[in-house]
User: Which sequence fits this backbone?
């Protein structure tokens, strides 16, 4: 910036430097000074003022451009205190366009969808109890816009621990005595094989939403979300976002001798993209409008007894 003026481009900067050097040379040489003075009879030492005026003519004052869009505080954030069904609508709002075909391959009782309008998406629900394994989906290649995956993410040694929460062995039968994978490695194996199948059915540019939680297994800290991000990037997925769900209240502990690690009271929604060439994610122009209450949480949707189709 010179005297409150902003150079418009590199050409004007070059012209400015050239004129300054030319003036310096002419004033250093008596013949040059005489030539300058002969132009209009003005003294040579006043030509610096003339050149300064010329420089001003080569500059323009740039008007600051106002950012596009409109000011708003209605934003989607990366962390929420609440439940899965309260956070999931915001994930969809930011990454999945209304009308998209979504395969929720661990649908269960449909908890995620309690606050999503029934007609917002073309939902294809399935789970292992309905006879559909997330590792072998009944969909064509590149036929799905979004896959949602929320498996049991805790091992259940002996088939009894966490049985009322998420019975891992009962659902997937791959943590038994004859399984090659054990405990946390069995959990990861399910995530990894399901991710490969999701890659197959997702269209280019498709979204893969994964729910997970870190755990301590055999007194060893296992950061599941990090392990998933690293492995899925090897498969070709792009990690686009991460949402932290902080549970309401404190998790209960029945018996504790010595606490060695922090008790987990948060989980994650990981958002992966199946790349569409080199195109980067730029956001949605047509987004799901989340109807929120005064506390900023999505409103519940009217219950429906309509049976959702497995196939489109």
Assistant:
């Amino acid at each position: 910036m010179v005297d409150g003026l902003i150079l418009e481009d590199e050409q004007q900067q070059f012209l400015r430097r050239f004129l300054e050097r030319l003036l310096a040379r002419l004033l250093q040489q008596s013949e040059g000074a005489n030539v300058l003075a002969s132009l209009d009879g003005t003294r040579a030492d006043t030509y610096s003022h003339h050149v300064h005026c010329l420089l001003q003519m080569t500059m323009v004052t740039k008007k600051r451009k106002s950012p596009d869009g409109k000011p708003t505080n209605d934003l989607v954030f990366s962390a929420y205190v609440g439940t899965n069904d309260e956070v999931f609508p915001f994930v969809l709002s930011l990454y999945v366009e209304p009308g998209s075909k979504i395969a929720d391959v661990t649908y269960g009782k449909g908890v995620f969808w309690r606050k999503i309008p029934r007609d917002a998406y073309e939902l294809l629900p399935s789970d292992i109890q309905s006879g559909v394994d997330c590792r072998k989906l009944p969909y064509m290649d590149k036929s799905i816009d979004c896959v949602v995956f929320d498996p049991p993410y805790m091992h259940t040694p002996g088939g009894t621990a966490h049985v009322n929460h998420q019975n891992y062995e009962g659902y997937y039968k791959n943590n038994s005595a004859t399984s090659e994978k054990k405990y946390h490695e069995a959990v990861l194996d399910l995530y990894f094989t399901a991710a490969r199948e999701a890659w197959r059915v997702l269209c280019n540019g498709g979204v893969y939403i994964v729910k997970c939680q870190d755990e301590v297994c055999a007194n060893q800290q296992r950061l599941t979300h990090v392990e998933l991000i690293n492995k899925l990037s090897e498969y070709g997925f792009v990690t686009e976002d991460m949402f932290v769900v902080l549970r309401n209240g404190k998790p209960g502990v029945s018996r504790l001798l010595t606490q060695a690690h922090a008790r987990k009271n948060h989980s994650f929604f990981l958002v992966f993209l199946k790349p569409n060439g080199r195109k980067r994610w730029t956001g949605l122009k047509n987004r799901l409008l989340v109807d929120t209450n005064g506390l900023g949480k999505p409103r519940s949707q009217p219950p429906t007894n309509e049976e959702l189709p497995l196939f489109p």
Summary: The helical segments are 10-28, 30-40, 47-57, 84-95, 168-172, 183-201, 224-235.
